[in-house]
Amino acid sequence: MTIAISSSEPMMLSLRETRMMVDRILLQSRIVSGSQQAVRNVILGAEAVGLPALQRLDDAFESIVISINPANLSLVQSSEDGAFLSLDAGGEHAWGIGVAVLELGVDAARNLGSAVVSVRNVREPAMLAGLVALAWGYEVDLQVTTGTDMAVARNVAGNVVVEPEWRHAEADCGYAVLSLCNRRRLDAAGRPDSAQDPVMRRILAEGFPSNRGLWERLYTRALGALTPDTVSSRRHAGTVMVDASGKVIGRPDDDDTDFSLLSQPQPQATNTPAAAS
What we know:
About 30% of the residues lie in helices and about 20% in strands. With about 280 residues, the protein is α+β, with helices and mostly antiparallel strands. Strands 2-3-4-8-5-6-7 form a 7-stranded mixed sheet, with helices on one face. It has a two-stranded antiparallel ribbon with strand order 1-9. Helix 1 packs across helix 2, helix 1 packs across helix 6 and helix 2 crosses helix 4. The protein is globular.
């Protein structure tokens, strides 16, 4: 008996698999390689706080994601003490400039105790609400205010509240304001307390709520980053080469493994109990 599975069937996506799929999708973009992980983190953060980031990743890959350029972000002005920064995203998507905006604010808050960062001309500014999911790791309390209705997302002492205004019109550019407060979180041993991250603990325990149809589309798109599956690719995928029947026929020409160590007698160690007796 064949059981039909609906594309709307709910699924819970694990953090590990979701991160891997997003990584593979971003490898197919023109994002400079050093920025891909930062873009991924903002996407996952937005999804973690309830925004449809994975859906947008699927919908807008060709129109937005493939051409993300973090270098579009620029500093417009700052206060004399550096506690206020005004940035222009240059029409860049929130995913492309999110981590850079956050880290500029974190640097100021580290030195001064608190800071405010205003960023304008940013595409889909509501996605910056995902930064509150990253705030714990930076040891700051963070409030993000976005859009004309001043929707708010905040992570204060682990209390994550998100009231985002969600608008996905691709041509829309808006603004956001980040308010940061330095907060050194230590565990009982006096070390930085990262294990109690409330968002991370929830996602690790529960995963991202999604549906089968979206996951299958993301999975299919992610396959584009992999080498096509052919007889030749299967025969050269490991450290040995095999023929079409599976018989081992050799090793790659660039394999520099030194097998002579396997046949050489090993000298007895001089610092072991056996050697000293």
